[in-house]
Amino acid sequence: MQLTIFTDTSLRTLMYLGIKENEIITLNEISTVYDVSINHLKKIAWELNKSGYIDSVNGRNGGYKLAQSPEYIQIGNIIRKYENLELVTCMKKDGFCALEPACKLKRALQEALDAYLNVLDQYTLSDLLTNQDELVEALFSDYKMKAIQH
Fold first, then answer.
1. Which residue positions does the secretion signal occupy (predicted)?
2. In this structure, are residues 9 and 40 in contact, taking their beta carbons and an 8 Å threshold?
3. 1-73+125-150 CATH fold
4. What pLDDT is attached to residue 150?
């Protein structure tokens, strides 16, 4: 299953805010580090804020920060919130399948999806940040730091 760019960038934004947990971070900084559109990040930040994952801080030195501790942000919940988990038409609420009731595809896909989500439910944002030194090194190379400062 491939995550949408929206979900992928949402997760990476949360990771960035988790790495810099005690700071207020601008979308420009995140945009520069991840090389993503600021307009796309604005939509993501709005959704993450609306969902209670991040807080916005207004003012001259404003930006964003995590709204809760990383150990309380479950990865499975983020996937459920932002991904379309109806893998095939028949999994939709009013979906139709010409093969019903004989088709076993829906059940197989549902079992696979449940297993996928069960694994992700075992991870929190905190778990994704356990190698913080390596993440910091990857994110804050000299090149990226110069770009952020300008």
1. none
2. yes
3. Arc Repressor Mutant, subunit A (1.10.10)
4. 47
